[in-house]
Amino acid sequence: MRKYWTVFQVNWQNALQYRGPTFISILGNLLHISVLLYLWNAIYLSNQSLGSYTLSDLITYYILQLIINSMVLSYISWEISDQISEGSFSNFLVKPVNYLHYWFTINLSGKLFEGLIILVVGAILSFLLIAHVSFPSSGLSLVYFIFSMILGGLLAFEFDFAIGILAFWIVKVNSFKYMLQYCIFFLAGALLPLDLFPVSFQVVANALPFRFLVFFPIQIFLEKEANPLPGFLIAMGWIVFLYFFLQFALRRGITRYEAVGK
Amino acid sequence: MKLLVNKLTKIFVRYFALYRSFLSHNLKNEMIYRANFAINVGMDIFFMMMNVLFFSILYGNVETVGGWTFHQTLILVGSVGIVRELAYLTFRKGFLELGNYVRTGNFDVMLTSPIAPAAHLAFRHVSLTDSLGEGLMGLLLVVYGFLHLSNASWIGIPFYLLMLVNSLVIYYALCLLINSLVFWLVKSQELNTVVYYFINTARYPREIYHGLGKIFFTFILPSSLIATTPAAILVGRANPSLVLISLSVAGGGLILGLFVWNWSLNFYSSASS
Questions:
Q1: Which of A25, A50, A178 sits opposite B43 (nearest CB)?
Q2: CA closest to A191 among chain B residues
Q3: Residue A262 is assigned to a structural domain of this protein
Q4: Contact A27 B194 (CB under 8 A)
Q5: Which of A18, A44, A74, B169 could form a disulfide with A55 if both were Cys (CB 3.0 to 4.6 A apart)?
């Protein structure tokens, strides 16, 4: 456990040192979210509406999406596939660390760091838009929401790790990975709430586990999810399944590893 | 007067010849990696399709957005694609490489060769294929949207093209302004992320903004003009004031951009040489 604590600390200091990119990416997200808020506002001003959402619901949806993007969604696959395709993964073959656990620690410290910043940004934003934010009516919903974010964060990490280690099998994985990541975010409800999709789409999206990353937590916050317990169980099932699957895939991947450039 | 015209023509001919030789050189380089080319085009088309998907789902729920119908919005999305391809055909990729030049001190070459540094940087990395998928897909969307307009008028096309060029000028001016910071930061990746977000928010109609947001997205980060102005002309929604604003932002931005860029060059530290 202590070695992972060291990894955590080192990465935390790294994040502090290279805070520029974090700020810029938050700024960019903030920009995109504000454009979308203007978009929804324009739609509701012209007396139209989206599904069962009120304007406040939608504004809340996208502020939460901003927070979830920083605290839950994972962007580590870039470095993982670089390590594999450029050969620096070899270092891990001789170190007494589990590659999955190592990256889980890195991801955790990164998400906590970004989370601290985004909570401040989100708080300022909600304060400015206080009249347009829907808060849950009961404390229990808030507890459920936080729990669902934790589950979402675990799942998001596992999916991104899976995308990263694809590099064992596919050499030029970068652009493919980008598309895959985008599809996951789309099916997670990061761009549009899933219940605005055409019905046939919704059936597919509901059957897939990606909705637990974004859509599911936000629905709990907006109290549109009557009973979140079955969702929790399904998400936890996926987390456990993916954990064993990834450990298995990692072992298979190592047998294919060519240590390019080393 | 005649002398001036002669001189300008000569400069133009020289720059055009340089541009052509850089373009053909880069094209040969790009053609070596055919798989890369196919992947690039495929990825561009994928992301354009996702934008279309976003709007199709949205328009499944509403009739108009900011007064724009679905087919009119396709022209917006397509126009952004075309502007991006035009940018890669002229200046965009050079700015992406600028950070490396400044960090290593290789920017010396650009400063000492007998061509304007900004033009040299732009031409050196001009690329036909980097954004080709977006350009082609954009063209397709514009044509498709245009054919589905109830009031399509062919007269708008030349003005549409003219305003596309105007949008390109706005884009260039913004790139110059933001990338001028590279001489202090010595890194251009994050600067160009800002540029990316700028062009990425251009596909929404300008009519959605009001108040402070409208001022911000017109004069500070003029993304609301990039696609909306040309597209508005094509769909017959343009008004003189919109065109006038776009022209002045382009003109004013370009003058400011060139001024700031040329001034910032003084702060280049010429590392390691």
A1: A178
A2: B54
A3: no
A4: yes
A5: A44
Q: What is the 3-state secondary structure (H, E, C) of A228-256?
A: CHHHHHHHHHHHHHHHHHHHHHHHHHHHH
CB contact under 8 A, B221 and A31: yes
Å from A176 to nearest chain B CA?
Answer: 8
Gap between the Cα atoms of A241 and A159, Å rounded? 12
Tokens of B240: 């003189």
* Domain span holding position A156: 2-256
| C-alpha–C-alpha distance, residues B196 and B189, integer Å | 10
One-letter identity of residue A24: I
Q: pLDDT of chain B along its 273 residues, tens only? A: 788 899 999 999 999 999 999 999 998 888 888 888 888 888 999 999 999 999 999 999 999 999 999 999 999 999 999 999 999 999 999 999 898 888 888 888 888 888 888 888 989 999 888 889 999 999 999 999 999 998 878 888 999 999 999 999 999 999 999 999 988 887 778 888 889 989 999 999 999 998 899 999 999 999 999 999 999 999 988 889 999 999 999 999 999 999 999 999 998 888 765
CB proximity B255 to A under 8 Å: no
Q: Using a CB-CB distance cutoff of 8 angstroms, which residues of chain B are in contact with residue A198?
A: 57, 60
Give the distance from residue A262's alpha carbon to the nearest chain B alpha carbon, in angstroms.
Answer: 25
Domain boundaries of chain B, sorted by first residue: 34-267
Direct distance between the N- and C-terminal alpha carbons of chain B, in angstroms, rounded to an integer: 43
Tell me which H or E stretch contains B106: none
Number of structural domains (chain A) is 1
Interchain CB contact of B33 with A (< 8 Å): no
The pTM of this model reads 0.89
What does the pLDDT look like over A112-127, one tens digit per residue? 988 888 888 888 888 8
Spatial CB neighbours of B207, under 8 Å, sequence gap ≥ 6: A42, B66, B67, B68, B228
Alpha carbons A94 and B106: distance in angstroms, whole number: 39
Contacts of A184 in chain B (CB under 8 A): none
> How many angstroms away from the CA of A175 is the closest CA of chain B?
7
Q: Which residues of A touch B213 (CB under 8 A)?
A: 34, 38
Q: Would you say residue A67 lies in a domain?
A: yes
Q: How far apart are the first and last CA of chain A?
A: 29
CA distance A49 to chain B (A): 7
Backbone phi, psi, residue A256, to 5°: -95, -5
**CB pair distance less than 8 Å for B61 and A51:** yes
> Does the residue A9 lie in any domain?
yes
A182 CB neighbours in chain B (<8 A) are 46-47, 50
Do the Cβ atoms of A109 and A11 come closer than 8 Å?
Answer: yes
Residues in contact with B56: Cβ distance below 8 Å, sequence separation at least 6, in sequence order: B70
CA angle, corner A247, sides to A243 and A253, nearest 5? 140
User: Do residues B197 and A32 touch, judged by C-beta distance below 8 A?
Assistant: yes
Any CB–CB contact under 8 A between B35 and chain A?
Answer: yes
